[in-house]
């Protein structure tokens, strides 16, 4: 009875070995396994693409918020202190942003460094405005910076 049970295996194993030695059968078997692997890679790439899209949407949202804040600052509808608080709140949730701000901008506190960040961001936007308005905004922001930190060093940066 046990020989009858082993008979199918005795026949199937040699046939499978022979079949795998035929190039077309071997490539078909390998192809089946590769399809599964490629499907997994494709799914991983799709998941990565979705995560990157979410990050992109978040970055675009943050840029839009900052552009609105800076537009209000340039127009004189808000103050450097108020925009600095909002920039700082936006950036504090992103440790990598805060590391860059701490290394890039002068100041003693995160608030002071962020104020310089706001001014830098504003400088990037001022090019769209007439020269006279640019000068007025720069003077106003430097005065607000001096008032906030009461140092001549803050005004020089």
Low-pLDDT stretches? none
Mind describing the biggest β-sheet? none
- Overall number of strands: 0
Q: Tell me the β content.
A: under 5%
In N-to-C order, the SSE pattern is: HHHHHHH
Q: Please, what is the average pLDDT?
A: 84
Number of helices: 7
Percentage of helical residues? over 70%
Explain what you see.
The protein has 157 residues and is mostly helical. The protein contains seven helices and no strands. It has helices at 2-21, 23-75, 80-92, 95-104, 110-126, 131-149, 152-156. The radius of gyration is 32 Å and the shape is elongated. The model has no long low-confidence stretch (mean pLDDT 84).
Can you summarize this structure?
The chain has 7 helices and no strands. The protein has 157 residues and is mainly α.
């Amino acid at each position: 009875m046990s020989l009858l049970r082993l008979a199918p295996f005795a026949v199937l194993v040699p046939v499978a070995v022979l079949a795998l030695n035929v190039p077309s059968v071997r490539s078909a078997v390998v192809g089946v396994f590769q399809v599964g692997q490629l499907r997994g890679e494709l799914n991983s790439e799709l998941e990565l693409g979705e995560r990157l899209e979410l990050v992109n949407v978040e970055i675009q949202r943050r840029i839009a918020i900052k552009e609105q804040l800076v537009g209000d600052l340039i127009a004189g509808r808000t103050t450097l202190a108020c925009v600095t608080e909002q920039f700082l709140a936006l950036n504090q949730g992103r440790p990598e942003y805060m590391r860059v701000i701490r290394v890039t901008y002068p100041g003693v506190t995160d608030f002071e460094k962020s104020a310089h960040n706001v001014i830098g961001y504003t400088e990037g936007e001022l090019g769209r405005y007439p020269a006279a308005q640019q000068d007025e905004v720069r003077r106003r922001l430097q005065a607000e910076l001096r008032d906030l930190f009461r140092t001549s060093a803050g005004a020089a940066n």
